[in-house]
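Pasting as-is:
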Amino acid sequence: MPLLLCTRLLAAKPPSVDLEAVLTRMDQAAAAFRDMTARLTKIAYTAVLKESNQEQGTIWMKRADSRAMMKVEFQAPDLRSVAFEGTTAQIYYPKMQTV
């Protein structure tokens, strides 16, 4: 019985989505946006070398009044923090104790 139920769920047609309606809902939700946190994985691929590099970290975003701030903290393989506020960006390298 569970297999039959899963098959029916997979066969169900997804509802039609109007792009303009989705964008309007996103604009409305953006007005109430205050902050978010997420884990991230950044993958950079160099086609000439057929090589990919992966970095892992955490991203924080906060909006207070008209100010927006963002910080990305990479934990692996090299520890560093990147902070953005307004039009200013800063990169902190803790091993070198340099901004």
